[in-house]
Amino acid sequence: MARLLIIEDHPLFREALENAISAALPDAEMLQATSIDTAIGLLSPPPGVDLILLDLSTPGTTGLSGVIRLRKSAPRTPILVVSAHQDPRLVAYVLSLGVAGYVSKSSTKEQLAHAINSVLRGDVHVPGSARSAEARRTRLPAQDLLKRLHDLTPQQLRVLDQIRCGLQNKQIAYELGICETTVKVHVSDILRKLQVTSRTQAIIEMEKLDFVNLIGEARGPADAPRDGAAPLTSTGTTTVREAPPA
Fold first, then answer.
1. pLDDT per residue as tens digits for the range 188-204
2. Residue 20: pLDDT above 90?
3. H-helix segments, 3-128
4. pLDDT-based confidence at 246, cuts 50/70/90?
5. I need a surface site. Which of 79, 84, 117, 132 has the fewest CB within 10 A?
6. In angstroms, what is the C-alpha Rg of the chain?
7. 236, 128 contact by CB (below 8 A)
8. Which residues make Cβ contacts (< 8 Å) with residue 225, sequence separation at least 6?
9. Domains present along the chain, CATH in parentheses
């Protein structure tokens, strides 16, 4: 029996995901979380989850930091991102983090079920737009920042999220249930690993991972949208045989 973890804070779409899972895997066991912190709590100790379905806009995350936190907490569990964001540049960023698939929230129940089955087979489910010529030319200027974030421990990523929210060391210690001295050590390590010298600079770096900034940075001057231009949308999906994320 497959066990899946749904990370989605919107009740209606969470129900839609449950229906899609039931269509793909009638006997599947489903766990639910409405925030990244709750999800990580369910993943520790490992409950043997076979697949994580993640909404990129789930509370407790800035841009792609939630994906990084989940990858740290469950490095061998495949993640299928289910998102309303369809720009191929953003998809390219997400796939670069080693997720097992990306599917649009506008997909039908049958398409969602297909994506779930594909990822559970060990495939990587990719929107067709992400394999277009434009997507292959996508530059990833925040890639260096993502690599630096990967150097942070799971606890340091939690502390960084609290810093981003404007909390001071004493408040962070209270929120995370640790002593203030430990928080100070984490903050020093975070600044060193991010190659910044202040909390303000760390917050500015994290702002680069907001969806609008990611898409804007990846878009060169020549392909900036004209006023009134239609938004990019996914036109299909391609399933690629690859090994599951390590």
1. 999 999 999 999 999 98
2. no
3. 11-24, 36-43, 65-73, 88-96, 109-120
4. very low
5. 84
6. 18
7. yes
8. 219
9. 3-137+231-241 (3.40.50.2300), 143-207 (1.10.10.10)
Most confident among 35-44, 132-141, 214-223 (mean pLDDT): 35-44
Dihedral angle, C-alpha 99, 105, 109, 114, nearest 10 °: -20
Alpha carbon distance 15, 113 (integer Å)? 14
237-241 vs 123-127, strand pairing mode: antiparallel
Residues 6+ apart with CB under 8 A from 216: none
Residue 43 tokens, joined: 């993943």
Determine the Cα–Cα distance for residues 229 and 246; give it in Å rounded to an integer. Answer: 39
For residue 125, the SS3 value is strand
String of DSSP letters for 127-196: EGGGGSHHHHT---TTHHHHHHHHTS-HHHHHHHHHHHTT--HHHHHHHHT--HHHHHHHHHHHHHHHT-
Q: What is the mean pLDDT of residues 27-42?
A: 90
Nearest alpha carbon to residue 102 among 117, 119, 122: 119
How far apart, in whole angstroms, are the C-alpha atoms of residue 233 and residue 128? 10
Sign of the dihedral defined by the CA atoms of residues 211, 111, 75, 167, in that order: positive
Q: For 122-137, what is the mean pLDDT?
A: 66
What distance in Å separates the CA atoms of residue 114 and residue 125, rounded to the nearest whole number?
Answer: 9
State the Cα–Cα distance between residues 200 and 188, nearest whole angstrom: 13
